[in-house]
Specification:
This protein has helices spanning about 25-35, 70-85, 115-125, 145-150, 155-180, 180-190; strands spanning about 5-10, 40-45, 50-55, 60-65, 90-95, 105-110, 130-135. By secondary structure, the chain is of the alpha/beta class.
Length: about 190
């Protein structure tokens, strides 16, 4: 399995979306940038905020697309073309309705599960879905018609604390994934309560 050299967070740009559930991917990538003592800066050629970072002995590209969620693919494709990255060099971090707040899961490949950011990335990479994902649980509102309103709103205080706890757990297990020890990373992250 190829090594992860780029971590891409999914979300929507702009202050009105900063604290919304759909931006959980951005939150993790921002946390990684802080951990690496660097800052994501606007980068026109990648249609997003970008930083090169050293994390646990690995050189990584960190990217938060600023294209809006349903156009994330253009940003990811630009990064891949520029640095000659294959889909399995990517770890895409996104919010996940099917997991409760406080849980996170690694996954490799698969469909988009109705997530517009993933759908656009799969399409932009020429239907190659072999990239790694890090799914951050935000819970489900209970009814499909409430999903859009739900993901574009802020989590409550206890929900936010649970999501922050999961993000911290992701940061802790990420070095194992970067080393290529996916089984151990998954095992450790998936056992977090």
């Amino acid at each position: 399995m190829s090594q992860v050299t780029a971590i891409i967070g999914l979300g929507n740009p702009g202050p009105e979306y900063d604290a919304t559930r759909h931006n959980a991917g951005f939150w993790l990538v921002d946390a990684l940038a802080r951990r690496a003592h660097t800052e994501l800066r606007p980068e026109k050629k990648f249609l997003g905020r970008y930083a090169k970072a050293q994390l646990d002995g690995h050189e990584l590209h960190l990217l938060n697309p600023t294209t809006f969620m349903n156009r994330s693919g253009a940003s990811v494709a630009a990064l891949c073309q520029f640095f000659k990255l294959a889909p399995d060099n990517l770890l895409v971090v996104h919010d996940e309705l099917d997991l409760p707040p406080g849980q996170a899961r690694f996954k490799t490949g698969g469909g988009h599960g109705g997530h517009n950011g993933l759908r656009d990335i799969i399409s932009a990479l020429g239907n190659q879905n072999a990239f790694h994902r890090l799914r951050i649980g935000i819970g489900h509102p209970g009814e499909a018609r409430q999903v859009v309103h739900y993901v574009l709103n802020r989590p409550g205080k206890s929900e936010q604390e649970a999501i922050d706890h999961a993000i911290l757990a992701c940061e802790t297990t990420l070095p194992l994934a970067l080393k290529g020890d996916w089984a151990k990373a998954m095992n450790q992250l998936h056992s977090v309560k």
